[in-house]
Design goal:
six-stranded mixed sheet, five-stranded parallel sheet, 32% helix
């Protein structure tokens, strides 16, 4: 690309979404990229910090878990471990005042509410404008409790389960959560996991070699006829061909970034409609695990709050569980999560000492300690961590769909506005509120820009209605992917577009043209950071055989057929998962570059075949098939 000006992209925000987008575009070699970040660090809401109690070790102030390991892109870029192992013993369930809660009723209410929340996935509300998750579950719970001898405790346990769900959402009450959109959130299979190193390490992996300017707070995005101007707080501006806005939803809702011209009415409406919840973490440490001295081996307490104790503005009732962080290095540490804007506003208004004492007094109380014992435990506590995600610059933790709204609002926030694009967990319709949702949104915007450039190869996924794909069966002597299944396609000619290459290859290899050419690639293959191929999905409505080149085998193969080549497997998996970038990494970028340079173009192969045919003796061996990435 010597002598060719690469399109310039400015990414606003160095959270996981912005870092991922910037790195993919940068490493592809097709774009000149810079990521602007107003803070003095990267990572956004993925932030690993030192402990406030002075002990060695780090703690996660923001993102903590990889939610569902199977198919999760975070697993691809980060070593990970299983969720914290729990010591033996029985967790303690109590009221906020420390009095014991009847555990049979707790177990029954928890299990029932968990099932009821799952059933909300398929609920069909009569009036989506008023139907909420909280209303649905509480209505069912009232009917389920009728006739139970432990009805009061059962309903309190249901409320506790709903309070626990608030930590996943960040709302004050699950009545704020849209029942209509609840089922659109996609749970990933597999256990919850944690990065082995830290989420800041995940952010570094997402960044790769992309250029990041720290302390460069963007204040305005100005769309111009010939590009975009991004204005920075220091009075400078960055001119670019495209801008990807990856700031938090909270920052956008607070007007931290201005848009010229203003956002269209439908975009502004969606921006105000999607809720941005607040979740904070408080961690306390002691020299010894005093809970074991009190006979509690686990150090876990589920706190069931009575109706009269759920006082608006009091942050302690926002904590429904204290848990011993068994895998954390350093002294014994308990962690509590505080959910909801109201509770967190009260928490964030307190200074460190007030947080330390009130939290320590609370956990000692729910553990059943009284008098001097409780005072001693409270006095011996040290504050290890407290977060303030409701404050600037993020103004919240993660998004959820509020009652009366739907997932279409999330799609609206993701829609491009000309040369201005948008990323962030709040733009992913099925994985909002997660770190992998943020990462995937960065992938999505990188793909949208990569799809505007021509890849070295164009490949066709010819697919039938049953999901099977037309495969070329490579022989054992094939120069590429021997004994494997591949798709059809080949290397792009100089000056040829990816779409034109696709149609030419289909004509040459299958003597076939689709009824309608695809609008654009369904996925792009990135190998060791390099854009290798665009893959287009084309439909085949009948089972008629194609006219094939001599020596090539053909069959319809299922996506999970083990004979697919490694490259094709990751592409097919990505397409089925609705992801647009497929990654294959073996650590040898040099070999990938050499492969791209070595493989001949279609014109070169045609000339070689013609030359060979001119000297080939009658009855000679057939020409070998053309080498191809497909």
């Amino acid at each position: 690309m010597v002598g060719v000006r690469r399109p310039r992209v400015v990414v606003v925000g160095a959270g996981l979404a912005g870092l991922r987008c910037g790195e993919v575009l940068h490493s592809s070699g097709h774009f000149d990229v810079v990521v602007l970040e107003g803070a003095s660090r990267i990572g956004g809401r993925a932030w690993t910090v030192g402990r406030l109690d002075g002990a060695e070790g780090l703690m996660e102030a923001g993102a903590t878990y990889i939610h569902g390991a199977e198919g999760n892109p975070l697993v691809r870029i980060s070593a990970q471990r299983s969720g914290s192992p729990r010591p033996p013993g029985v967790r303690r369930v109590c009221y906020g005042d420390g009095s014991p809660f009847p555990e049979p009723a707790f177990d029954a209410g928890w299990a029932w509410a968990s099932d009821a929340l799952a059933a909300c996935d398929d609920a069909a509300p009569e009036d989506p404008a008023t139907a909420s998750v909280g209303g649905e579950v509480r209505g069912r719970a009232a009917r389920a409790a009728a006739g139970r001898g432990d009805a009061k405790a059962f309903l309190e346990a249901v409320e506790h389960r709903l309070a626990f769900e608030r930590v996943s959402v960040g709302c004050d009450d699950v009545r704020q959560c849209s029942l209509d959109a609840w089922g659109e959130y996609a749970e990933r299979p597999g256990r919850m996991r944690e990065p082995v190193a830290s989420f800041s390490g995940v952010a570094l992996a997402a960044r790769g070699a992309a250029a990041v300017e720290l302390g460069a707070r963007a204040t305005a995005v100005v769309a111009r006829p010939d590009g975009v101007e991004v204005r920075v707080a220091d009075g400078t501006a960055r001119r670019c061909d495209y801008c990807v806005v990856a700031a938090s939803l909270g920052a956008l809702q607070r007007g931290a970034l201005a848009f010229e011209p203003p956002l269209p009415p439908e975009r502004a409406a969606a921006l105000g409609a999607v809720a941005f919840g607040v979740v904070n973490k408080v961690a306390l440490s002691w020299e010894t695990p005093w809970w074991r001295d009190a006979g509690d081996q686990r150090g876990d307490w589920d706190v069931v709050w009575k109706e009269e104790e759920r006082v608006p503005g009091a942050w302690l009732p926002g904590v429904c569980q204290w848990r011993h962080a068994a895998t954390l290095p350093g002294p014994p540490t308990l962690v509590g999560w505080c959910a909801g804007e109201t509770a967190n506003a009260a928490l964030e208004a307190l200074d460190d000492e007030a947080v330390r004492f009130s939290a320590a007094f609370h956990v000692a109380t729910v553990a059943g300690l009284r008098g001097e014992q409780r005072d001693a435990v409270a006095a011996g506590a040290r504050l290890a961590l407290r977060t303030s995600w409701g404050a600037a610059p993020s103004f919240g933790s993660y998004a959820y769909v509020r009652t009366g709204r739907g997932g279409a609002d999330l799609d609206a926030l993701a829609a491009p506005l000309g040369r201005v694009r948008f990323a962030g967990e709040h733009t992913h319709r099925s994985r909002y509120s997660t770190a992998d949702g943020a990462l995937l949104s960065g992938d999505r915007e990188a793909f949208r820009l990569l799809a505007t450039v021509d890849a070295p190869f164009s490949c066709a996924v010819v697919r039938r209605a049953d999901g099977s794909c037309l495969a070329e069966a490579r022989g054992p002597d094939a120069s590429a992917a021997p004994d494997k299944l591949t798709c059809y396609g080949g290397k792009r000619e100089a000056g040829e577009s990816s779409a034109a290459c696709l149609l030419r290859e289909l004509d040459e290899e299958l003597r076939w043209a689709p009824a309608a050419a695809p609008d654009g690639p369904a996925a792009s293959l990135v190998v060791n950071g390099l854009l290798v191929a665009h893959f287009y999905v084309v439909a085949r409505d009948d089972d008629a055989d194609f006219v094939l080149e001599p020596g090539r085998g053909q069959l319809w193969a299922a996506r999970d057929d083990p004979r697919w080549s490694k490259w094709h497997k990751v592409v097919l998996d990505a397409i089925v998962a609705g992801e647009h970038l497929a990654y294959f990494d073996d650590g040898d970028r040099g070999a990938t570059l050499a492969m791209l340079r070595k493989l001949p173009t279609a014109a070169e192969m045609e000339a070689a075949h013609a030359a060979a045919a001119a000297v080939e003796e009658p009855g000679g061996a057939p020409l070998p098939p053309s080498p191809s990435v497909s």
